[in-house]
Structure formats: structure tokens, C-alpha cells
């Protein structure tokens, strides 16, 4: 969700001159990134039912607003973060791999590009959450959802390291965890690209290692490694398919995988498929197997097929369709803003309900009108943040930290 930095002169996954322009933009991928951000936000709607002990209180998932229409993100929206990781891998292998290997992009430049994109809004939202949680504790006697808002975890968050293994639990603007993991992924990716360790089999090995790490219980980093490098493999597949002239056939196959995996996910919402596959296993193993089957349906089938379809399908778009889709590209532009702002905005809404009612109640958050109001406020704040905070701060940081370089607008 944070890829709108400088276009790099890297191998574009296109197959002709019109698609090798380093300034070109994958509009369809931008839109997908924005949609994925909102799936995570819907998953986090349950925050409004968290009590003082960090547990859900009187929570009925099906009573959330417009549940029938948004059942998948309400139940499985957390997997949207894995799509972010995968899309990051796809984009970074496309934009940076060859330039890092050749030395055209060095470690300092790469770090400044990432820092200037990620840190300004992170710092603002961190301070905002700290202030809002202080008000929340004074009003209700407990923080909103995430309890570890102490000096130690504040420092970890300042260092973008809240989920590097030093933490004692979730803290402050906890959704930043995925960005924290991405920082580690960026460092690993740069080292691999710099030393030419990005052949397909090397990346495939990292994909397997990531899945093993995840299954060992190191969820955050394991999911990041698994999906980031799987995204790199998808990019390599796109390049090979175009070079072979097989893009159209692959596009049809990918659409078929989307339909099949999507239908299977819907069918398995109540666990019918997983239960059939795991019949005879102990109850705990069946639960774990069901979770793994669902996770792999998304990450091994649906998400790679979506990336393939969007990357290959964009080649076939006519100018009218491309122009129409470009009007929605802002969803990708504000995906980072919506992701980082959505939790502090939830605290603000919870405080507003408390002030109006005299006490906190989750009841208003069952109303579709409240979801619509929240979403409208979130989009407005994200647009303001992107235009008036993130982009200006990014330009200032790059101008000072990368002197003498002419930087293209983002």
C-alpha cells in the first residue's frame, strides 16, 4: 500500500516499448490496493466491541452493518494484509530489482525513498493515537482495544519496530505492524537484489521458508516473507509469460483460478470443505487445518491469480477503459492513509459516542449509517493527508536527504 514513490528504470512487466516506460503506472493494481485496504478496515470494525480486558463483549459478527454484503471482509478481511505484502513484492521486484543489482539505486537512496514515504504519516498517527488513548483512559478507565501504550512500546513504534519480536503485545496504532514487517522485508530484499540472489528458485525457497515460519507461530514475519516473495514470483511469471507470447492464455487461466478459488472460499465460509478434508482428525487439528486451507486458498490461489489478471489484463485495455479506471486510481494513492488513519479515527468515533451518550455503547456501530459516516470521514481525511501531509513531507525529506537529484512528482 506504499508504492507510489519514484518510478524507477527497472524492467517493467510489459512486453513492448509502450509498457517499458518507467513512469508508467499499473492503474488496476492501484485500485486493488485501495480495495484491499478497505477489507482490512471492515475486519477491524469489530474493535467497537472490545471491552476493558481486551476481549470482545456482546459481539455478534452477523449484526455488523450490511453483514450479508460484506461477510467475507468481516470474517476474513485480515487476509487483506497478505495481499499488501504480495503486491509489495510484485512492485518492488518490478521497480527495483535490476537497478539495485546494477548499482543505479544504492542503499542510501533506497532507504530515503522508503523512509520519506512511510514515516511522516506514521509519526503523526502514532502521536494522535497516544493523545486519543490518553483521553480514552481518562473517560473510560481503559484504552481502546490495544493496551500496551507505555514508553517502551512508544519507542518501539518510533523506530518502526513494534513487531520485530521485542514487543510485549499490541500497542498504539497497532495496524502499523504490517508496515513494520515490510521494513524488514525491504532490507532483506535490497540485500538479495544487491548480491544477485533473486533467481526464481532462490525466491521460491524464501516463499517456503516464510510459510514454515508462519506455521511455527511467528505469524507476522512469516506471513510477510511468504507473501512478499510470492509476489516476486508472480512478477517473474508475468515477465516469462509475456516473453513467451502466452499472456492471453495465461490471462484466461488466471481468471478461471479466480472464479474457482473465489467460489471455493465462499462455499467454505462455514467450513464445509475443510471439515470434509479433515474428517477424523482431533478437534484442535481440524481448526488449525481449516485456518490453513482458507489461508492458502487466498494466498496461493486467489491473490496470485488476481495479480496475474490485473497485470496481464492491463495490456489489453482500450484507452477509454484505461481512462475510466484512472479515475479510481486515487484509491491506491490513499490506501496508506486509510490504513494508518482508520484506527485513530475509530478511537475518535468511540469517544464521540461516549460524549453523546454519557457512556460508551457499541450499539450505534451496528447501524449502516454509522459505517457510511465513518467511511466518508476516513476517505476525506485520507485525501487531505495524502495531498497536504504525505506528499509535501516526502518532497521535503527527499530534497534534503537526496541533494542534487531531480525528483519526479509522485
Automatic annotation (TrEMBL):
* UniProt keywords, alphabetically: Membrane, Transmembrane, Transmembrane helix
Q: Which domain of life is it from?
A: Bacteria
Q: Acyltransferase domain: from which residue to which, for each copy?
A: 28-381
Q: Which Pfam families match?
A: Acyl_transf_3
Q: Does the keyword Membrane apply?
A: yes
- GO CC terms of this entry: membrane
Q: Which GO terms describe its biological process?
A: polysaccharide biosynthetic process
Q: Which GO terms describe its molecular function?
A: acyltransferase activity, transferring groups other than amino-acyl groups
Q: Where is this region: Disordered?
A: 1-22
Membrane-crossing ranges are 76-96, 117-137, 174-193, 200-217, 223-241, 250-269, 289-313, 334-353, 365-384
Instruction: Write down what this protein is called.
Output: Acyltransferase 3 domain-containing protein
Instruction: Give the species this sequence originates from.
Output: Skermanella stibiiresistens SB22
Lineage at the top is:
Bacteria, Pseudomonadati, Pseudomonadota, Alphaproteobacteria, Rhodospirillales
Amino acid at each position: 500500500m506504499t508504492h507510489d514513490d519514484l518510478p524507477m528504470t527497472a524492467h517493467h512487466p510489459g512486453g513492448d516499448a509502450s509498457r517499458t516506460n518507467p513512469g508508467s503506472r499499473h492503474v488496476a493494481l492501484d485500485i486493488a490496493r485501495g480495495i484491499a485496504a478497505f477489507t482490512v478496515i471492515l475486519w477491524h470494525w469489530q474493535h467497537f466491541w472490545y471491552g476493558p480486558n481486551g476481549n470482545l463483549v456482546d459481539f455478534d459478527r452477523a449484526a455488523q452493518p450490511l453483514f450479508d454484503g460484506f461477510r467475507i471482509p468481516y470474517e476474513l478481511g485480515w487476509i487483506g494484509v497478505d495481499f499488501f505484502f504480495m503486491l509489495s513484492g510484485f512492485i518492488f521486484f518490478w521497480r527495483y530489482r535490476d537497478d539495485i543489482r546494477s548499482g543505479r539505486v544504492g542503499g542510501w537512496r533506497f532507504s530515503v525513498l522508503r523512509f520519506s514515504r512511510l514515516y511522516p504519516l506514521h509519526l503523526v498517527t502514532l502521536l494522535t493515537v497516544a493523545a486519543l488513548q490518553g483521553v480514552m483512559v481518562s473517560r473510560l478507565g481503559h484504552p481502546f482495544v490495544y493496551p500496551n501504550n507505555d514508553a517502551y512500546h512508544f519507542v518501539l513504534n518510533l523506530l518502526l519496530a513494534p513487531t520485530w519480536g521485542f514487543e510485549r503485545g499490541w500497542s498504539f496504532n497497532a495496524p502499523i505492524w504490517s508496515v513494520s514487517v515490510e521494513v524488514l522485508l525491504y532490507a532483506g530484499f535490497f540485500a538479495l537484489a544487491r548480491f544477485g540472489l533473486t533467481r526464481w528458485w532462490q525466491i521460491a525457497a524464501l516463499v517456503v521458508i516464510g510459510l514454515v515460519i508462519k506455521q511455527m507461530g511467528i505469524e507476522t514475519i512469516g506471513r510477510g516473507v511468504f507473501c512478499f516473495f510470492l509476489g516476486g514470483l508472480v512478477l517473474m511469471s508475468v515477465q516469462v509469460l509475456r516473453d513467451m507470447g502466452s499472456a492471453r492464455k495465461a490471462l484466461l487461466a488466471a481468471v478461471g483460478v479466480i472464479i474457482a478459488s473465489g467460489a471455493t472460499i465462499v462455499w467454505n465460509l462455514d467450513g464445509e470443505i475443510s471439515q470434509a478434508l479433515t474428517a477424523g482428525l482431533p478437534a484442535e487439528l481440524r481448526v488449525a487445518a481449516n485456518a490453513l486451507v482458507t489461508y492458502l486458498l487466498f494466498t496461493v490461489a486467489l491473490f496470485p491469480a488476481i495479480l496475474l489478471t490485473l497485470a496481464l489484463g492491463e495490456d489489453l485495455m482500450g484507452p477509454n477503459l484505461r481512462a475510466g479506471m484512472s479515475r479510481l486510481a486515487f484509491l491506491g494513492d490513499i490506501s496508506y492513509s486509510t490504513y494508518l488513519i482508520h484506527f485513530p479515527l475509530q478511537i475518535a468515533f468511540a469517544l464521540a459516542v461516549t460524549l453523546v451518550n454519557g457512556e460508551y455503547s457499541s450499539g450505534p456501530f451496528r447501524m449502516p449509517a454509522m459505517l457510511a459516516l465513518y467511511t466518508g470521514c476516513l476517505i476525506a481525511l485520507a485525501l487531505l493527508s495524502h495531498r497536504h501531509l504525505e506528499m509535501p513531507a516526502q518532497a521535503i525529506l527527499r530534497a534534503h536527504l537526496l541533494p542534487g537529484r531531480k525528483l519526479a512528482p509522485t
